[in-house]
Design a protein that fits this description.
The structure holds two protein chains of two kinds. Chain A has one domain: Orthogonal Bundle (Arp2/3 complex 21 kDa subunit ARPC3), CATH 1.10.1760. Chain A is 76% helix and 3% strand. In chain A, strands 1-2 form a two-stranded antiparallel ribbon. Chain A is globular. Chain A starts with a helix and ends with a helix. The relative contact order of chain A is 0.13. The model of chain A has no long low-confidence stretch (mean pLDDT 86). Chain B has four helices and twelve strands. In chain B, strand 3 and strand 4 form a beta hairpin. In chain B, strands 1-2-5-4-3-12 form a six-stranded antiparallel barrel. Helix content of chain B is 37%, strand content 27%. By secondary structure, chain B is of the alpha+beta class. The chains are: A mainly alpha, B alpha+beta. At the A-B interface, helix 2, helix 4, helix 5 and helix 7 of A face helix 1, helix 2, helix 3 and strand 1 of B.
């Protein structure tokens, strides 16, 4: 493979990274869960990816694709089909609302708003699952996972910032 | 005046979030939310064309998921192989120390089996459950705190039925909770929602084995107060639900903080092929 072809693939990968990552997470159900001191720890990376990209670069992640990943996630995780789509779109709405209201973006503000957003989304998710579908799910596990997701937001945000900068640099070079 | 402007800004931001389409967006958030609600409402249709369409969609997504997960499954498989290889010498030394008279045990087992069969005929007990099993490959194993399940490559086309028992070798691993055209989902015995009626031998006590979300053990619930249960007792399926056959070994009893748990015979993390009761 020539160097220019490799570069082209690399640019395309960086440019479509959020979409690829989101579909990868949906298809594999990857949540980095592990067991430590008799407790299960897991993260919801989908929430971080959706919130970050809708807040910072909404043109990179279409709402239609987010809806589709929600459907895939429901099938893989055995949830009622459509519930994850509603959660993700609700998260998008909150992120879009914050984007419209924020004049001076900062990581701390984003982090606090992310906590509020996932608390709202998780509560809606739990309410619909338990009240409408009588789905046996433990509130504590759901909230604990959301809290862990909240904790890793700054680290993932920094990583995504770097990817956004690389993409921006490539675009400017073009 | 200022509060009016603030309220207007707030309303504009909400309208913009739900109704505005971005540069490359084809649908607004509001439209997609309505579509999601419609899709969700289809969950109430458990039969008919909606169910057939859902079944095919699930098959398609599971196959896609299988291909995407394949490199990671390969890495995981090799990791466990390596661990097994490293532990081989210790296991060999331990087995060497134990004195098993296997031939005698096999004869003894065969004797009890034929005796059991004879006694069942004597008490006129009907064996309504099939002993035929279908071998199936595990496509995906979903191990999250909410769900411990596995997807297999056999569906209702191959005669899989809802609720039937799934074994790895001779040991119980779970039951079928979802059947599609070409794939099915197993709810593993370790899942939080798994409740299996069991019998503990030699005391003969009946109980419910309830998953804890842990891959190594599950808890015994509704234990009778008078029956004596001790560490090391073997737990089998009791078959009282008339769906899961009786006498499938699950694990052995362990005691933790005055509670009785069952340590599985099967390593839930490493299930590759399973037998499904037809």
């Amino acid at each position: 493979m020539s160097k220019s072809n490799f570069k082209k693939i690399y640019h395309s990968f960086i440019h479509t990274f959020p979409i690829l990552f989101l579909f990868f997470l949906a298809f594999t159900g990857f949540d980095l869960s592990f067991h430590l001191f008799e407790n299960n720890y897991s993260f919801n990376f989908m929430y971080v990816v959706i919130f970050y990209w809708v807040l910072k670069k909404p043109e990179r992640l279409g709402y239609g694709l987010i809806f589709l990943t929600g459907i895939i996630n429901d099938v893989v995780q055995n949830f009622p089909i459509g519930i994850s789509s509603i959660n993700y779109l609700l998260l998008c709405a909150i992120a879009a609302f914050i984007r419209a209201r924020t004049l001076m973006p900062s990581l701390l503000y984003d982090w606090v708003f992310f906590l509020i957003a996932i608390l709202i989304v998780t509560s809606v998710n739990f309410s619909v699952l338990t009240i409408v579908f009588e789905y046996p799910i433990k509130y504590g596990i759901l909230m604990f996972s959301s809290f862990l997701t909240f904790l890793i937001y700054p680290a993932l945000s920094k990583l995504f910032d770097t990817i956004t900068l690389i993409d921006l640099r490539e675009e400017n070079a073009k | 005046m200022a509060s009016d402007a603030g309220r207007d800004d707030f309303i504009i931001a909400i309208r913009s979030a739900f109704l505005k389409k971005g540069t490359r967006q084809k649908f607004s958030l509001f439209t997609l939310l309505i579509i999601s609600l419609l899709v969700l409402s289809l969950e109430y249709f458990k039969t008919g064309p909606v169910n057939v369409f859902r079944s095919f969609t699930k098959d398609l997504i599971f196959k896609g998921s299988y291909f995407i997960s394949e490199p990671f499954v390969y890495i995981k498989k090799n990791y466990y192989n390596l661990v097994e290889h490293l532990n081989m010498y210790d296991e060999y030394t331990e087995l060497k120390k134990k004195d098993y008279d296997l031939t005698n045990l096999i004869y003894e087992n065969n004797f009890y089996k034929s005796e059991n069969k004879r006694l069942k005929i004597l008490i006129d007990e009907k064996n309504t459950l099939s002993n035929e099993y279908l071998l199936s490959k595990v496509l995906l194993d979903q191990q999250s705190p909410y769900l411990k399940s596995a997807i297999i490559n056999k569906g209702f086309k191959h005669g899989i039925k809802l609720g039937v028992a799934v074994k790895e070798n001779s040991y119980f691993v779970g039951k079928i909770i979802n059947v599609n055209f070409l794939t099915s989902r197993i709810l593993l015995v370790s899942d939080l929602n798994s409740k299996i009626p069991v019998i503990i031998e030699p005391s003969g006590a009946n109980a419910i084995l309830s998953g804890q979300g842990h891959n190594d053990y599950a808890v015994l619930e509704y234990l009778p107060k008078l029956k004596k249960i001790k560490k090391g007792d073997i737990v089998y399926t009791s078959g009282v639900d008339n769906i899961i056959p009786q006498a499938i070994p699950i694990g052995k009893v362990i005691e933790k903080e005055e509670n009785f748990f069952v340590e599985f015979f099967v390593d839930i993390n490493q299930i590759k092929y399973v037998n499904i009761n037809k």
